[in-house]
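Tip: read the tokens left to right.
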């Protein structure tokens, strides 16, 4: 084996320029594969993290996933019902105290109840449609993502009681209102109430910053004439991946629709899977192109070293020794290219991590490219490179093993 290794090194060194070009081709493929994987994986992780942080892991509402069975369905084997309009149940979640107590008994995380109603926010003859959310400030802080997103005021200002409201800075700009101003909230049933702005938040999500207003739970209940009612329970879990299990159990027990964050963003998560497939397909294509360079080098060496092959086989080397020799040369080029590619990939990833840019939407925030530092990316790129190198070296090695030394020597003479 040592002799075969020495012969492989001699063959590779004999064509130094072509070997260097092949190694550079593999290194570039590995380096850019690592950088691409780090950038795309980092973007995906950052996007999923934002999904997890900006929405409840499980959301229980006063809706039902399937409509209740009608009396006709109980009497007849076959019944077709159309134009059915259920009565509006303004009670929200029935017996919320018992539901919250049961959930607190086993849910591994934090939960908060709220009453969400549609309405209009009015200030100085300007109207903005909004979702008015009544919350309990004490427990909402453990669930709501806006607690740390305030530009002016704070979420704690809501604890002072009274008719206070928290709105997004985009909504405030559309209304022309500011901190300390008094706005009027009009509910969907026509009731109105004045509220003082005690906080302006900015989450970066336009739908929230210009369409949500937070008030005390009791104020939302009064505004919508739904005393002691809630229509939503939001849960933040210690382990976000456990959301489907928790949602299934809660829905089975309470009977209300419980949606995990994975279900709410199913289409987006499927798109991320497709993107990953595309990414690794591109990586494989890059490695395949690099493999053609290795194939060219090994094929040339096989052709030029035909006389050496004949001599080696005449000295007693067998076919599998010839295959091993040229396969080893291909793997050696792939290994050297992978090592150089790791260095190039690290430098590219480091350079991408230093890039800073200004968000066009706000004109104020600075951010960096989301980068995932993972040794797995280096291993996968090297595995692709070595696999393509092995395949590129095998075909010439197979041909070299089948050469007849007598025919080679006769042709050479």
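Filled-in amino acids:
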């Amino acid at each position: 084996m040592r002799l075969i290794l020495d012969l492989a090194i001699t063959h590779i060194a004999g064509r130094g320029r072509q070997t260097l070009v092949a190694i550079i081709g593999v290194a570039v493929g590995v380096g850019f594969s690592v950088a691409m994987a780090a950038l795309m994986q980092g973007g995906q992780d950052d996007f999923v993290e934002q999904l997890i942080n900006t929405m409840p892991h499980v959301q229980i509402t006063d809706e039902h996933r399937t409509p209740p069975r009608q009396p006709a369905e109980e009497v007849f084997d076959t019944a077709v019902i159309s134009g059915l309009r259920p009565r509006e149940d303004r009670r929200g979640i029935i017996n919320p105290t018992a539901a919250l107590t049961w959930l607190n008994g086993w849910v591994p995380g934090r939960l908060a109840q709220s009453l969400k109603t549609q309405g209009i926010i009015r200030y100085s003859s300007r109207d903005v449609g909004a979702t008015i959310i009544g919350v309990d400030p004490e427990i909402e802080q453990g669930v709501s993502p806006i607690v740390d997103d305030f530009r002016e005021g704070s979420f704690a200002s809501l604890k002072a009681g009274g008719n206070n409201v928290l709105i997004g800075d985009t909504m405030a700009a559309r209304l022309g209102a500011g901190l300390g101003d008094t706005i009027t909230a009009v509910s969907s049933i026509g009731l109105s109430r004045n509220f003082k702005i005690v906080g302006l938040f900015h989450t970066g999500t336009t739908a929230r910053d210009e369409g949500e207003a937070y008030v005390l739970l009791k104020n939302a209940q009064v505004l919508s004439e739904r005393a002691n009612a809630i229509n939503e329970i939001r849960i933040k879990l210690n382990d976000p991946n456990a959301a489907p299990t928790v949602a299934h159990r809660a829905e089975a027990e309470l009977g209300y629709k419980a949606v995990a964050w994975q279900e709410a963003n199913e289409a987006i998560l499927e798109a991320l899977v497709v993107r990953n497939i595309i990414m690794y397909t591109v990586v494989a294509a890059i490695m395949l192109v690099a493999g053609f360079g290795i194939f060219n080098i090994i094929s040339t060496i096989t052709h030029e070293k035909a006389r050496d092959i004949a001599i080696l086989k005449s000295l007693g080397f067998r076919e599998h020794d010839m295959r091993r020799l040229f396969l080893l040369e291909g793997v050696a080029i792939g290994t050297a290219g992978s090592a150089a590619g790791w260095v190039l990939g690290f430098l590219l990833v480091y350079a991408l991590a230093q890039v800073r840019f200004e968000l066009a939407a706000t004109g104020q925030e600075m951010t960096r490219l989301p980068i995932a530092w993972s040794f797995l990316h280096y291993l996968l790129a090297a595995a692709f490179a070595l696999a393509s190198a092995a395949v590129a070296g095998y075909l010439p090695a197979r041909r070299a093993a089948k050469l007849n030394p007598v025919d080679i020597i006769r042709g050479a003479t």
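Residues 355 and 368 are 6 Å apart (CA to CA). The first strand starts at residue 58 and ends at 61.
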